[in-house]
Amino acid sequence: MDLTLPAGVNLQESTLGFLKKPKKMLINGKWLDAINGKTFPTYNPATGEELAQVPLADAEDVDRAVNAARAAFEHGPWGKLSAAERSKLLWKVADLIDQHADELAELEVLDNGKPYRVARRGDIPSASEHFRYYAGWTTKIEGTTIPVSIPNQFVYTLREPMGVVGLIIPWNFPLLMCAWKLAPALACGNVAILKPAEETPLSALRLGEIMLEAGFPEGVVNIVTGPGVPTGSAITANMGIDKVAFTGSTEVGRKVMQAAATSNLKRVSLELGGKSPLVIFADADVAQAVKGATWAGFSTAGQECVAGSRLFIERRVYDEVLQGLSEQAGRLKVDHGFAEKVHVGPIISQQQLNRVLSYIQVGEQAGAKVVAGGERLGEEQAGGYFLRPTVFAHEDDDLQIVKEEIFGPVVTATPFDSWDELVNRANTTSYGLAAGIYTSDVSKAHRFAQQVKAGTVWINGYGLFDAAAPFGGYKQSGFGREMGKDAIELYTQVKTVWVGI
Ligand code: NAP
Ligand code: MG
After folding, report:
1. Alpha carbon nearest to ligand 1 atom 15, residue
2. Which of 168, 202, 254 to mutate to test the pocket of ligand 1 (most atoms within 8 A of CB)?
3. Segments in the chain below pLDDT 70
4. HSE toward the beta carbon, residue 173, CA cutoff 13 A
5. Which of 54, 345, 425, 430 has the most C-beta neighbours closer than 10 Å?
6. How many CB atoms lie within 10 A of CB 335?
7. Taking a C-beta distance cutoff of 8 angstroms, is the pair 217, 76 a contact?
8. Which of 305, 314, 405, 482 is catalytic?
9. Looking at residue 200, what is its pLDDT?
């Protein structure tokens, strides 16, 4: 294994130890190769170097995981654990994530490319917090009593687990996405088949070790690795899976629904793409707004479903904001995630880099003006997939770069003049994941929050998340709410019981 690191960077012994081990999948509490013996590589996007070969699961492996999960759900010790015992297991996972935070952050930097500081202070503690938050929920999942009109009947509801749930996640927050899905699914008493993205399987596999160490019984958590096809598609088509929770692109989300419809009508929840509007009014604290917009557009190299990629700036401050934003974008240090003072890491893959570059080209050809960035970073970063944070100025909402999700460090900025025009333009999108507004006028801020069609609205801030706050999409950004109390509904079903008395 080649590992080119910035000078002076030394990895934890435990990270090196994990990297050296042959990578296996977690099925029924055991670490296994794919039945067909196939593997695939995962790369470091900062250098293009291969980090590991990982088992490539096909339908046969997924069947094996589903059988193990079903057995664990119907007959294993899992179903007999009290809610309080499930809580302890989840809490233990959180503690172990914290204990191994340095190592997990290093794996995240290597496999995904994000800056170490971001992984260590953001992704990893947020992942453990999700397990802790849902550890608290196990003992609070309640049914209701219903006053029906038929005499001599006592009616109550039970909130029960779905059963075997398939969890399919993307590569932008590898460990955190595992936590978003596994923590509530397990808190509700389900058993899981998790498929990490093919670009970033490592931290999920390390989490599998942690979950076994925490004491989860065999078959309760299974982790299968491989690409969308055949691994992901084997999950969505499987007749033994009761529910699939998916995070990824809108395009694949459609396929997930189709597969559910033509197999066993498994339940589906979808967290999909976005093209979120971020509005800056002239009465805002402009310096704060510029900082917020920079972070909204370029953190995780813009590879965030909630990226604030469509900027609407009141015309009076348009030039000022645009200039501030270009300056800030130019100052961001784009480099290896272990480099000192790095702000932005690489794009996840060559393929994704090409996609983003072609959007930049399309934007320029269509007449939008590049006011910052626009090109790949070469020389010292050769081998990695680095792109300068890019800002486009335009006055045409019909441009492809304004309508389509780019999923890279590219934002478009346009002026607006009136309230009505603004809300209408902000809502002219097939997506509805998030929106942001910077203003000092409280009523304007709340009015915008009410009128914008998005699942999350940030006022005078952007991109904040908490395990307790529900998150999900309007329109083609998906349905179902993760996090908070809402996620309990995502992973349970209601049974109504009539008792003749
Ligand atoms: P993606 O291509 O849709 O992949 C997401 C996951 O689905 C991956 O694990 C992928 O496997 C798998 N997959 C691909 N094809 C499949 C199929 N036919 N059947 C079943 N599973 C399949 O998305 P991505 O490129 O990883 O991530 C970027 C997208 O995710 C963006 O559109 C972004 O907006 C969205 N996203 C949304 C949220 C949210 O919460 N709403 C969060 C993060 C990202 P492989 O990658 O291994 O092939
Ligand atoms: Mg990788």
Report:
1. 228
2. 168
3. 379-382
4. 23
5. 345
6. 22
7. yes
8. 305
9. 98
Q: Residue 335 and residue 418: Cα distance in Å, rounded?
A: 40
- What residues contact 237, with CB distance under 8 A and at least 6 apart? 59, 259, 262, 263
For 192-241, what is the HEC assignment? EEEECCCCCCHHHHHHHHHHHHHCCCCCCEEECCCCHHHHHHHHHHCCCC
Q: How many residues does the chain have?
A: 501
Closest CA to 408 of 362, 373, 370, 356: 356
457 contact partners, CB below 8 Å, separation of at least 6: 434, 435, 436, 437, 448, 449
- Supply the pLDDT for residue 472: 98
Cβ 58 under 6 angstroms from ligand 1:
no
Q: Please answer whether residues 56 and 34 qualify as being in contact, where contact means their C-beta atoms are separated by less than 8 angstroms.
A: yes
Ligand 1 pocket, residue 198 CB under 6 Å: yes
At 127, phi and psi to the nearest 5? -65, -45
Structure tokens at 368: 């939008």
- Cα 94 off chain centre by: 18
Question: Whole-angstrom Cα distance, residue 325 to residue 338?
Answer: 25
3-state helix, strand, coil in the chain (%, to 5): 45, 20, 35
The answer to whether the beta carbons of residues 279 and 437 sit under 8 Å apart is: yes
The edge-to-edge listing of strands for the beta sheet with 410-416 is 369-372, 390-393, 410-416, 310-314, 277-280, 434-438, 456-459
Give the pLDDT of residue 377.
87
- pLDDT at site 2: 74
For each of the domains in the chain, give its residue range(s) and CATH number, in order of start: 14-272+478-497 (3.40.605.10), 277-467 (3.40.309.10)
H/E stretch holding 154: strand 153-161
Decide: helix, strand or coil at residue 167.
Answer: strand
Map 376-427 to HEC letters: ECCHHHCCCCCECCEEEECCCCCCHHHHCCCCCCEEEEEEECCHHHHHHHHH
26, 208 Cβ separation under 8 angstroms: yes
Minimum-distance ligand 1 atom for the alpha carbon of 271: 41
Give per-residue pLDDT as tens, 58-78: 999 999 999 999 999 999 999
Distance CA 76, CA 70 (A): 9
Instruction: Give the pLDDT score at 8.
Output: 94
With a threshold of 0.85, does the pTM exceed it? Answer: yes
